[in-house]
Amino acid sequence: VFDGHGGCDAAAFVRKNILTFIVEDAEFPTCINEAIKNAFLKADNVLANTRSLDNTSGTTALTALAFG
Fold it and tell me: Which PROSITE patterns would you find in this protein's record (predicted)?
């Protein structure tokens, strides 16, 4: 669940990209916690450096990853 504030750009961007960022991280799947942390840091960096997105928007995130 991504709850945007100051606009919807950040929430939409993270919703669209976070899973890709997780599974493409070098730590995935051996160290899931690190891969998730790295993915959110990458999303933050990309958002900060993408001029086409509203840089006043942000998002909170509630995520779960289930294996089985």
Answer: PPM_2
The tens digit of pLDDT for each residue in 2-25 reads 999 888 899 999 999 999 999 999
Q: Are 65 and 36 in contact (CB under 8 A)?
A: yes
Q: What is the pLDDT of residues 22-67, one digit of tens each?
A: 999 999 999 999 999 999 999 999 998 888 877 788 899 998 888 7
DSSP state of 33: H
pTM: 0.88
Torsion region of 33: left, alpha or beta (phi above 0 gives left; psi -120 to 50 gives alpha) = alpha
**CA–CA gap between residue 6 and residue 23 (Å, rounded):** 28
Residues with Cβ < 8 Å from 36, sequence gap 6 or more? 22, 63, 65
